[in-house]
Amino acid sequence: MLFLMHGLAFELFFKILWLHKSYSITRIFNMKAVIIAAGEGTRMRPLTYTTPKQLLRVCGKTLLEYVLEALPAAVSEIVIIVGYKGSDIQKFLGDEWRGKSVTYIWQERPQGTAHAVSLAKDFLQGETLFLAGYADDIHGAEGVGALVAQGRPCFMVAEVADPRKFGVIVTNTAGKIVSFEEKPEQPKSNLVSSGFFVLPIEIFDYPVPPRENGEEYIPDRVVKMMQDGYEFYTERSTQWIPIGYPQDLEEAEKILCPKK
Questions:
Q1: Is the residue at 145 inside a domain?
Q2: What is the pLDDT of residue 15?
Q3: Quick count: other Cβ atoms within 10 Å of Cβ 213?
Q4: What's the pLDDT score for residue 2?
Q5: 160 Cβ contact partners less than 8 Å away, ≥ 6 residues apart
Q6: Residues with Cβ < 8 Å from 16, sequence gap 6 or more?
Q7: DSSP designation for 79
Q8: What is the rounded CA–CA span in Å between residue 106 and residue 116?
Q9: With a threshold of 0.70, does the pTM exceed it?
Q10: Does residue 216 lie within any of the structural domains?
């Protein structure tokens, strides 16, 4: 009888552990990164008529290079989701970045961030967590490193004046996400996803229907996972310079390489 009780106790323990989706901190020493670089950069026109947004330059360095430089040493391999002018990105970067192998996967047409990440499913086989991010903003490496060091599903966040064009996040006092909405008309907070996130591999088990614009968004999958007991946390950005319009390049240069 005692043996049976112990067996039931262990079973209950592992069931609770699975429900709350605990992750081993040792995973931070070997993590793959998915970089989304498939967008057309329509708001950056006319610059993006000839150059993909990710290869536009700030202080002589491409946006893609800034993103890759922010990756922590824990990242062992990189996959880049490309689309619009993807061959230019592939030619520029090649198959290696500072000792990390680089693989390219093509998104044939814009279908949203969740669809883009899902294209890397085979690349991520065997992983528990992976890092993902967008290839067209500038981030502080310290923030990305702290994000990965949490060793659990987590979104890098920052506060903005107008959150309506971002994924808007509400957290509890422990930094756990309790609400996540993509581009809401009436935001519940000024806290937004700033473009890097650590996701559990189970994100691929939570497909969502596309929105009216035909795109699938990561927050929609995260909300479904939270309803099943998954927990997602936050990490504050140490630096985030969004690049959405041509004038943002000049503003970024004022910050990163001001003229003396």
A1: yes
A2: 40
A3: 9
A4: 42
A5: 166, 190, 192
A6: none
A7: E
A8: 9
A9: yes
A10: yes
**Pair of tokens at residue 23:** 């992750």
Triad 94, 98, 104: Cα angle to 5°: 35
Q: What is the number of domains present in the chain?
A: 1
12 within some domain = no
Query: Structure tokens of 193?
Result: 């996803």
Distance between CA atoms of residues 105 and 3, nearest Å: 51
Q: Flag residues of the chain having pLDDT under 70.
A: 1-29, 260
Domain assignment of residue 65, yes or no: yes
Distance (Å, whole) CA 233 – CA 231: 7
Provide the pLDDT for residue 208: 85
Range of 117's domain?
Answer: 30-256
Q: Which residues make beta-bridge pairs with 154?
A: 198, 233
CATH for 156:
3.90.550.10
pLDDT at 10: 44
And the tokens for 237? 């950005």
Rg for the chain, CA atoms, rounded: 19
